[in-house]
Amino acid sequence: MKPVTLLVGTRKGAWILRSDSSREQFELSGPHRLGEMVHHFVQDPRDGGTLLMATRTGHLGPTVLRSSDGGRTWIEASKPPAFDKATDGERTRSVDHVFWLTAGHPGQAGTWYAGTSPQGLFRSIDGGDTWQGVRGLNNHPDLDTWTGGEKDGTPDGPKLHSVLVDPRDPERLYFGMSSGGTFESRDAGETWRPLNRGVAMDFAPPGDYEFGHDPHCVVQHPADPDRLYQQNHCGIYRLDRPSDTWVRIGDNMPKDVGDIGFPIVAHPRDPDTVWVFPMDGTSVWPRTTVGGKPAVFRTSDAGATWVRQARGFPSDQAWWTVMRQAMSADRGEPVGLYLGTTQGEIWASVDAGDTWRCLVRHLPRIFSLEVA
Amino acid sequence: MIRVNIPSHLDSYTGGERDLGAEGKTLAEILSHLDERFPGIRFRIIDEQDQLRAHIKLFINQDMATTLEDVVGEEDVVTVTAALSGG
Predict the structure, then answer these.
(1) Residues in B touching A78 (Cβ below 8 Å)
(2) For strand A227-232 and strand A51-56, is the pairing parallel, antiparallel, or unpaired?
(3) Which terminus of chain A is less hemmed in, N or C, by CB atoms within 10 Å?
(4) Where are the domains of chain A?
């Protein structure tokens, strides 16, 4: 098969991991941009070559970099994502970091979307050089109500993530906000509506809520764009459009594991198959592996049943976790799965999750791991 | 020409040079002038609301600046520092 290239974004720079055609041998190169916080590092699927990276440092403001020579040289955006300057009386908002990058529709070369912390959505139509706010969201009068303000977010800042572009229609977009919930637009971002019916909000008083939820990762299945899955702060869900009610498929996970986690990864060809990496979301939310025993769980029947896949992982005392952008699948047969840990390790399975082996150790905390 | 010293964090914008000359009567004008010469440098230290980023400080000689409108004299030295920001 075609060799696999993995793009690794970490707390202190980026690396590239390339396989041979059998996925047996992997070679690590880098670092790129050593010392910079690389929240997301992706390749343009439309040209198969351009790389984009969302980065900042501990001191300096956020920006987006791009490379057209495999990472040898990087060009900074001449106009990085930034909110409009506030006028008198308006609440001021500044982008702390660019958290998420998504290539636009296959028919719109050069279009990209960026999600930020605090929650904002930006678009570039020139390959990532200049970014404009999607005003239908960033200037929406209800945005603060939807998100609960900047206090109501993840420990390292509230985020907009999981920007999804329907492969059949460039006007149809989805995203997730932590917090805020999942939202949908059918007019390229001019208007948005919440899409959270059926999703629990255990951190709020009992009741049904239209927004304010905490999706951790939302995917549109590549084999069936009418099927969405999400790993939420409060469970694992599936949504089959045109329905707008999510079904909690995480209720079918083993009760001693639960259905809390960050990533969810779709099989490239089978819409009934996804993988998750559960974490401990009990008590004070340690956000580690459950019981110190790393395990991936796979469903092959759209969430009716789940299978534990832990062969090769440490059997005990491994307390890492996997962030929402740090787990991905290739298009091989069988599918290859890859995950990067908060302890700087990269693990791979080239048999669809049945067995795992550690490819790389000793990297910084891994924020993102994407198949190029 | 006013002297401006920048931290190593920013020298990728200036070709490695950390002792710069700039023009302007206020810090805001000086930073705008620097950004014309080294595009992008201002946004890395000043956000879109014209606020200093959390771990950046500006000094005029030995005095920490309080606003970007602080006045800078021809003989003054402006120093941009990257304060401690943890691991």
Answers:
(1) 39-40
(2) unpaired
(3) N
(4) 195-318
pLDDT value at residue A90: 79
Q: Are A83 and B48 an interchain contact pair (Cβ–Cβ within 8 Å)?
A: yes
pLDDT tens digits along A354-363: 999 999 999 9
Give how far A171 is from chain B: nearest CA, Å.
28
> Could you tell me the pTM of the whole model?
0.95
Number of residue pairs across A and B with CB atoms under 8 Å?
53
The CA distance from A203 to A111, in Å, is 36
The alpha-carbon gap from B20 to the nearest alpha carbon of chain A, in Å, equals 19
B39 contacts in A (CB within 8 Å)? Answer: 78
pLDDT in tens, B59-72: 999 999 999 999 99
- Does the predicted interface ipTM exceed a cut of 0.85? yes
The pLDDT score that the predictor gives to residue A266 is 98
- CATH domain B2-82 topology: Ubiquitin-like (UB roll) (3.10.20)
Residue A285, number of CB atoms within 10 A of its CB = 12
CB contact under 8 A, A93 and B49: yes
Write the residue in A61, A78, A85 that is nearest to B53 by C-beta: A61
